[in-house]
Amino acid sequence: MVTGPSTTTAVQKAVGPVVLLGPPGAGKGTQAKRIAEHFGIPQISTGDILRANVAAGTELGKQAKSVMESGNLVPDELLFGMVSARVGEADCARGYILDGFPRTLAQAEWLDKFFQNQRDAQLPPVVVDIQVGYNELLGRLTGRRTCPTCGRIYNVHLSPPKVEGLCDVEGSKLVTRKDDEETVIAERLKAYERQTAPLTDYYKSQGRLLILDGSRSIDEVTSQAFQAIEKAREKNVGQR
Ligand code: AMP
Questions:
Q1: Which of 4, 168, 214, 239 might form a disulfide with 130, Cβ 3.0–4.6 angstroms?
Q2: Is residue 160 situated within a structural domain?
Q3: Cβ distance 58 to 2 under 8 Å?
Q4: Structurally, how many domains does the chain consist of?
Q5: Nearest residue by C-alpha to atom 12 in ligand 1
Q6: pLDDT band at residue 9 under the 50/70/90 scheme
Q7: Would the pTM count as exceeding 0.90?
């Protein structure tokens, strides 16, 4: 199984798990990268790990491929082993950011049990929800282009590359992800409404939910995210 790259960081304050929620196109990937860099913790994107497994032709990748291409969610059971293996890696000891997991109530309940079993080692999770309206999401998703070499994300309307169609850093030809094609986008947004949106209430009832206004600029959302995580961390550390 491909579990994604590990990164090593200098010894810093513990951050614990950060859960990033939000519909497709809310900017989770972009913000997760910035949060990961700022706090020195790895970004764990279940979508990236699944795509790496599809590309490598692993058993997991074979099972996930057609579901992903249709815009639906991969069965929960395929995610659990994948996430626990990645989170158990050494670079996650101080914390990590989950980008795209959980996406169903069953995944959220599984994650709560997982956190309970790890309670001595980890701070309680911080849950950040990036909220964006439906029409804005559609525009963002149809304009999204990705660098196949480094994974950088561009948007032909909002954040185009310097040279049309090419990655600023790698120079590679940008691609439209298969699941960013229009019919698939509609399915992904439906899957979000049906299966993932209820997680907002789930975490709200636990008193954990931190809501960010994802319609603001990328930098503004980043600064809201940093502040929310730092504040939640101070509170949690104070309660220990
Ligand atoms: P993403 O890159 O996060 O948009 O994920 C791309 C696709 O991977 C999704 O449309 C799903 O098919 C699959 N996927 C990623 N994360 C999950 C998850 N937590 N549960 C089920 N399917 C997932």
A1: 214
A2: yes
A3: yes
A4: 1
A5: 68
A6: very low
A7: no
